[in-house]
């Protein structure tokens, strides 16, 4: 569990990462070069510090060299993002996440060894395209051509125990959970009988997973 996290860059992305980490009970040190973001986040994070993260001595003073989890969420200056990421990597921090604002930026972050490179705008843009086109409630690409989809069950699987329908063989997807009128998610077993109005969570190859609800 990541209980102590340093978030560098408190723009919209850094702010939402930091606040969500706080909401889940983590300690968050937020660092930003700007006065306004630090003032805005001051009372909402464990610590918020105004500092230039491209300066090694500053990062050391703040204990970033001892951190286990660091998020570099600087997007307005690619140079500052790369300098900061490279310093954090030189400290041997085991888990560095960095936000990329372009494909080229992401490639360089990967080349210097950042452990997790995220492209928030590209990822959300792609997700919206799939949600909109296939009319899904949720869609997460898992890599390797697979997706996790939240949708409604198609007529073909309603009213009979899942085991009798051979969903995997006939439709190439695996239904993993369902939510009925009681509003709780439950694991789907062979005995589960899906009803009209349920929601389901399924995985499978992208094309099959996003078209399953139309069967
Ligand atoms: P978003 O697109 O997520 O709103 P930006 O990428 O524009 O955010 O925001 C980046 C944040 O990183 C800004 O708040 C900016 O002040 C901060 N930042 C930029 N350079 C540095 C730096 N050298 N050290 C610390 N923070 C920085």
Spell out the key features of this protein.
single chain; 215 residues; alpha/beta; Alpha-Beta Plaits; 2 domains; 11 strands
The major sheet is characterized as: 6 strands, parallel
Strands in their spatial order, largest beta sheet: 3-2-1-4-5-6
Separation, N- and C-terminal Cα atoms: 40 Å
Structural class: alpha/beta
CATH architecture of the largest domain: 3-Layer(aba) Sandwich
Low-confidence stretches: none
Shape annotation: elongated
Number of strands: 11
Please work out how many helical segments DSSP would assign: 9
**C-alpha Rg, in Å?**
22 Å
CATH level 4 superfamily of the largest domain: NAD(P)-binding Rossmann-like Domain
Percent of residues in helices? 25-40%
The ordered H/E elements are EHEHEHEHEHEHEEHHEEEH
CATH class of the largest domain: Alpha Beta
Number of domains: 2
User: What's the pLDDT, averaged over the residues?
Assistant: 95
Strand content: 25-35%
List the ligand species. adenosine-5'-diphosphate
Write down the CATH topology of the largest domain: Rossmann fold
Give a short overview.
With 215 residues, the protein is of the alpha/beta class.
């Amino acid at each position: 569990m990541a209980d102590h996290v340093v978030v560098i860059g408190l723009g919209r992305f850094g702010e939402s990462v930091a606040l969500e980490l706080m909401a889940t009970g983590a300690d968050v040190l937020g660092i930003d070069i700007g006065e306004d973001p630090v003032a805005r986040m001051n009372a909402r994070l464990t610590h918020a510090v105004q500092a230039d993260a491209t300066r090694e001595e500053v990062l050391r003073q703040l204990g970033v060299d001892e951190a286990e989890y660091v998020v570099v969420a600087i997007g307005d200056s690619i140079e500052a993002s790369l300098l900061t990421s490279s310093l954090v990597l030189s400290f041997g921090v085991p888990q560095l996440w960095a936000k990329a604002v372009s494909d080229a930026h992401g490639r360089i972050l990967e080349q210097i060894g950042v452990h997790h490179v995220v492209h928030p705008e590209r990822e959300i843009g792609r997700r919206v395209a799939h949600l909109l086109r296939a009319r899904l409630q949720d869609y997460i690409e898992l890599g390797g051509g697979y997706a996790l989809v939240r949708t409604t069950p198609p007529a073909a699987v309603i009213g009979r125990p899942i085991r009798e329908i051979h969903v995997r063989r006939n439709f190439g997807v695996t239904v993993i959970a369902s939510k009925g009128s009681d509003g709780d998610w439950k694991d789907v077993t062979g005995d589960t009988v899906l009803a009209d109005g349920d929601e389901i969570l399924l995985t499978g190859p992208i094309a099959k997973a996003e078209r399953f609800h139309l069967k």
